[in-house]
Write the structure tokens for this entry.
Amino acid sequence: MTPLDPIRYHETLEVLAPILEGVVAVGVRVASPFQRAQIAERASPVGADLFRPDGVFDYTVDAVGNMRIARAWRDLVPHVRRRWNLVPGDRLEGLELEATEVFTAAVVDGDADPATVVVQRWFDAAIGGR
């Protein structure tokens, strides 16, 4: 088993940030109304839930339908999940209630810009500013 590396964890979040911002920007635009409802339903105030299998990011990656992005997601996110499982104090907060409401309303309406801003702000806070 690979040892936990806090630098790799931080770098993984830095790599995931633009990928997931792009995924939300594209996914909200191309998703069907049903898919958008499913994405919105998965928005969560629990940070780990954002990264769970079949969570908001996982589902949005699938909605985009790009195999390279899906592969990058599936290669990177297990390291984040593993770190959170073994170092629970590193778990990041999820979306604040107001941000969750903005995100879900924007997704349901098919308005990618505000949804993407919520994701950008979450990653900015998670990474400690970019």
Notes: The mean pLDDT is 88. The domain at 6-127 is CATH 1.20.120.530 (Four Helix Bundle (Hemerythrin (Met), subunit A)).
